[in-house]
C-alpha cells in the first residue's frame, strides 16, 4: 500500500510499504478516506532527527475511514462502518484509561520509546491507504451518517486538543483569554473559548494572514512584533491581566510570558508540544496563585462533547481547511504547511 514515510528532517516520501493488517483480536483495519498533516508532524519535518534517528516509519495521526476488517474481539464497530480514529491509543481497561487518561494508558505506552500516538515510530501512522488500529473498542468512534467526513476529521486530534486547552484553562462566561498561536490548534482553542462564553479572546501570532482569519472569527488579533502584548492585555483588563492564557505553539518563552499575562489566581493551559525545558519564573507563578495545566490529549474524552456542537452548527471544523491534496502529493503538503506558503492553515490528504 502507499504511505507517507519519514526518512529524516524535511524528508517525507510517499512509498510502497507492507499492507496494514490485523495482528490481534482487538484490532480493526481501517481503509483511510481522509487524513491530515498536523502541526505535531512538523516537529518531524523540522527536527525529527534529534528524537527519531531511526527512519522508515509511516507517519500521521489524524484520520477517518471505513472498517475493512475487525478482529473477533472487537464489539463496538464492524466491517463497513465509517469510523474516526483517535490519535492517542488507549487500551480502555487500565486504571489510566478508566480515569479518562487514554494518553497515559499503561498498556499502550509500556516499554515504548515514543509513546502511544499514531505515526511516531511505535505505532504505524495513518497517512496511508490503510491503518491498523489496536484496541479498537477504545480508539475508534462510529460516526453519524448526517455529518460529512471533513466535519468530523479533526475530532481525531486537533479539535479535542484545542478544546482541552479551554477546558484546562477553565474558560467560562465573561472571561478574557489570550491564545498564543493561530495555527489549527490555536484556532480551535480560540473557537472553544468562545463557545464556552469568553467575552474577549486575544489571538497572538506573527503571521498577519492568520491574524486576519482570527479577527474574522471575532478575536482581537495581536502581532507581538508590532504591538506590545502585555500592555494591550493590561489595558483591556484594567491592569489585572487575562483570566486565562492558552499556549498552543510549543515555545518555552511563551509559557514564561503566559505567567506575566495571567491575572492573580488565573489559569494557564499549555497544549503546544514543547520539546525543550521550560524555565518558569517561579516566584511570580507562586505569588500569583496561578494554576498551570498541560498534557497530551485524550480525544476519547472530548469527542462526545464536541460532536453535538458540530451537529448544531456551533463549531465548523472544516473552516480551517486550506488545501486538499491527494496522498501522492503529501510532500508538497508538508512543504507549504511548514513554510506557511499559499495561505496554508490545514492540509487534508485523500488516498
Explain the overall architecture.
By secondary structure, the protein is an alpha/beta fold. It has 2 domains: 2-157 and 298-350, Medium-chain alcohol dehydrogenases, catalytic domain (Quinone Oxidoreductase, Chain A, domain 1); 160-294, NAD(P)-binding Rossmann-like Domain (Rossmann fold, 3-Layer(aba) Sandwich). It is 28% helix and 23% strand. The chain contains 12 helices and 16 strands. It has helices at residues 41-47, 95-98, 136-139, 149-152, 158-168, 184-195, 208-216, 229-236, 252-261, 282-287, 299-311, 330-338, and strands spanning 2-6, 12-16, 28-37, 57-58, 63-70, 82-85, 130-133, 140-142, 176-180, 200-204, 220-222, 242-247, 262-270, 291-294, 323-326, 347-350. Strands 3, 5, 6, 7, 8, 15 and 16 form a 7-stranded mixed β-sheet that branches. Helix 7 (208-216) links the parallel strand 10 and strand 11 (220-222). Helix 5 (158-168) crosses helix 6 (184-195). The longest helix is centred in the C-terminal third of the chain and has 13 residues, at 299-311. The protein starts with a strand and ends with a strand.
Topology:
Elements: E1 2-6, E2 12-16, E3 28-37, H1 41-47, E4 57-58, E5 63-70, E6 82-85, H2 95-98, E7 130-133, H3 136-139, E8 140-142, H4 149-152, H5 158-168, E9 176-180, H6 184-195, E10 200-204, H7 208-216, E11 220-222, H8 229-236, E12 242-247, H9 252-261, E13 262-270, H10 282-287, E14 291-294, H11 299-311, E15 323-326, H12 330-338, E16 347-350
Parallel strand pairs: 9-10, 9-12, 10-11, 12-13, 13-14, 15-16
Antiparallel strand pairs: 1-2, 1-4, 3-5, 3-7, 3-16, 5-6, 6-8
Helix pairs in contact: 5-6, 5-11
Amino acid at each position: 500500500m502507499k504511505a507517507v514515510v519519514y526518512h529524516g528532517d524535511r524528508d517525507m516520501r510517499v512509498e510502497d510499504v507492507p499492507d496494514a493488517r490485523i495482528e490481534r483480536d482487538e484490532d480493526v483495519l481501517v481503509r483511510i478516506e481522509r487524513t491530515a498533516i498536523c502541526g505535531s508532524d512538523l516537529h518531524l519535518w523540522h527536527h525529527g532527527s534529534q528524537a527519531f534517528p531511526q527512519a522508515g516509519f509511516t507517519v500521521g495521526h489524524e484520520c477517518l475511514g471505513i472498517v475493512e476488517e475487525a478482529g473477533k474481539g472487537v464489539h463496538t464497530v464492524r466491517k463497513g462502518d465509517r469510523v474516526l480514529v483517535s490519535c492517542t491509543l488507549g487500551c480502555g481497561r487500565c486504571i489510566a484509561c478508566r480515569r479518562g487518561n487514554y494518553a497515559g494508558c499503561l498498556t499502550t505506552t509500556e516499554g515504548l520509546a515514543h509513546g502511544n500516538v499514531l505515526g511516531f515510530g511505535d505505532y504505524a501512522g495513518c497517512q496511508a491507504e490503510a491503518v491498523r488500529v489496536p484496541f479498537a473498542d477504545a480508539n475508534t468512534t462510529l460516526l453519524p451518517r448526517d455529518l460529512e467526513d471533513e466535519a468530523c476529521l479533526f475530532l481525531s486530534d486537533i479539535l479535542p486538543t484545542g478544546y482541552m486547552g479551554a477546558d484546562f484553562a477553565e474558560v467560562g462566561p465573561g472571561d478574557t483569554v489570550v491564545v498564543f498561536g493561530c495555527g489549527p490548534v490555536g484556532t480551535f482553542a480560540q473557537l472553544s473559548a468562545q463557545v464556552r462564553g469568553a467575552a474577549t479572546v486575544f489571538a497572538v501570532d506573527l503571521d498577519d494572514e492568520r491574524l486576519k482569519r482570527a479577527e474574522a472569527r471575532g478575536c482581537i488579533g495581536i502581532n507581538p512584533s508590532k504591538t506590545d502584548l502585555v500592555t494591550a492585555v493590561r489595558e483591556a483588563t484594567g491592569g489585572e491581566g487575562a483570566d486565562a492564557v492558552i499556549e498552543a505553539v510549543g515555545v518555552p518563552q511563551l509559557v514564561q510570558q503566559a505567567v506575566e499575562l495571567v491575572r492573580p489566581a488565573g489559569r494557564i493551559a499549555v497544549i503546544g508540544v514543547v520539546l525543550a525545558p521550560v524555565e518558569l519564573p517561579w516566584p511570580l507563578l507562586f505569588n500569583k496563585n496561578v494554576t498551570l495545566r498541560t498534557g497530551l490529549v485524550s480525544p476519547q474524552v472530548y469527542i462526545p462533547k464536541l460532536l453535538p456542537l458540530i451537529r448544531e452548527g456551533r463549531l465548523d471544523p472544516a473552516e480551517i481547511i486550506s488545501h486538499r491534496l491527494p496522498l501522492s502529493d503529501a510532500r508538497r503538503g508538508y512543504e507549504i504547511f511548514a513554510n506557511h506558503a499559499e495561505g496554508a492553515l490545514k492540509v487534508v490528504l485523500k488516498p
